[in-house]
Design a protein that fits this description.
About 0% of the residues lie in helices and about 50% in strands. The chain has strands at about 1-5, 10, 15-25, 35-40, 45-50, 55-60, 65-70, 75-80, 90-95, 105-110. The termini are far apart.
C-alpha cells in the first residue's frame, strides 16, 4: 500500500485548496479513510472521514468548510478546503483507518 498526498501550498486566508490522495496497492472504495493534520508541537487531529459506503464525517472545525470525497475506485480521494484560516496551517495526511498506513503528507500554509 502506498499513499501520496498532493495539492497543498500557500494560500491567503479565505482561500481554497483541494488536496488529493492517490493510492496504489488497494482501492479506496473498500476502505475507511481519514484526512488528518498535524502542526509541529501539537498532536495529530482528525479532519474528515469517509467509509466504504460513502458516508462522511467531519471534525467540528471542518464542518461547512471542508468536503471529503472519493468518486470511484480509480479516482483519488479529495479534501476540498474552503474559507481557509490561519489555524488550518498544518501537514495534511490521508490515512487508511484500519492499518494506519499514510503518506508523507502535503503542507498547507494559510497566511
Amino acid at each position: 500500500v502506498q499513499l501520496v498526498e498532493y495539492g497543498g501550498g500557500l494560500v491567503q486566508p479565505g482561500g481554497s485548496l483541494r488536496l488529493s490522495c492517490a493510492a496504489s496497492g488497494f482501492t479506496f472504495s473498500s476502505q475507511y479513510m481519514n484526512w488528518v493534520r498535524q502542526v509541529p508541537g501539537k498532536g495529530r487531529e482528525g479532519v474528515a472521514a469517509i467509509n466504504s459506503d460513502g458516508r462522511t464525517d467531519y471534525a467540528d472545525f471542518a464542518k461547512g468548510r471542508f468536503t471529503i470525497s472519493q468518486d470511484n475506485a480509480e479516482a483519488p480521494m479529495y479534501l476540498q478546503m474552503n474559507s481557509l484560516k490561519s489555524e488550518d496551517t498544518a501537514l495534511y495526511y490521508c490515512v487508511v483507518v484500519i492499518t494506519g498506513a499514510r503518506g508523507q503528507g502535503t503542507q498547507v500554509t494559510v497566511s
